[in-house]
Write a structure and sequence with these properties.
Helix content is 19%, strand content 35%. By secondary structure, the protein is an alpha+beta fold. The protein folds into two domains: 11-132 and 272-291, Rossmann fold (3-Layer(aba) Sandwich), CATH 3.40.50.10330; 135-268, Tumour Suppressor Smad4. Helix 1 packs across helix 2 (45-51). The chain starts with 10 loop residues before the first strand and ends in a 5-residue tail after the last helix.
Amino acid sequence: MAEGPATRIVRVGVVAKQGLTAAAAHLSAVADWLHERGVETVFEVETAELAGLDHEPTLPRDAIAAAVDLVLVLGGDGTLLGTASRIGAAGLSTPILGVNFGRLGFLTEVTLEELFPALESVLDGTAHIHERRLLHASVQDGATTEAVALNDVVVTRGEISRVIDLAVTVDGQFVTRVKGDGVIVATPTGSTAYNLAASGPIVHPDVDAILITPIAPHTLANRPIVIPGSSTVEVAAIDTGRPADVFVTFDGQRGSRLSPTGIVRITRAPRPVRLVSSATRGYYDTLREKLGWGEK
């Protein structure tokens, strides 16, 4: 459901993709534009260095969302995913405005030309802000590790490993044994990411659901399934006695090795992340452009 920002925007955090030199001039322009409107800026440390803005306040990437009313992300979907996971892990509701510097992204759907009109709409309260559900993952493998993901949690084999065996349960009920390259557990937002490449279904982000998609299964009987968003999914490595490398990753941003007795428990995170939407295109427009629907 679209909604405007709940509070007046008085401080904006700015985060750019690491090493994105093409953003330098635009970062300076953003700072000037916001200052002219009485809005404070807080730049991520490396972002400020990228633009030579040594006079602007800075904070580390992990701390910036808690200090601002809006996070402006310049880069691509990967940069936005990292920001979203930090906001989700901290339990914050800080909205994100993602501006794409490459091809139009599924998440960073605002173009560079739309940057300042989009900022203006956020400041005046007319912006469309959509809530996107997050996944919370708890990895029980000796110690317990927790993570938040906007797109997906993936349990997969290592680069030199043979096929792996995984047991998948939903709400305590055994669902299937997957023998193949792994399993993707995705949000509707993540349905157009790795899930789509693995022949999983596209699900509109407003649908309250979780997707489970096998990766290159060794039997045609293994098929993707869409389950209620309130479900608890568990993926466990099966110790077959054969050497195997198993990894769990979160949004493709970070991850760790999973032992033969490791279990990954995945639920819907308590709070969604809030993304500023483009005022000129909707979800289906992005699908048509990215997937080439209707092209001759």
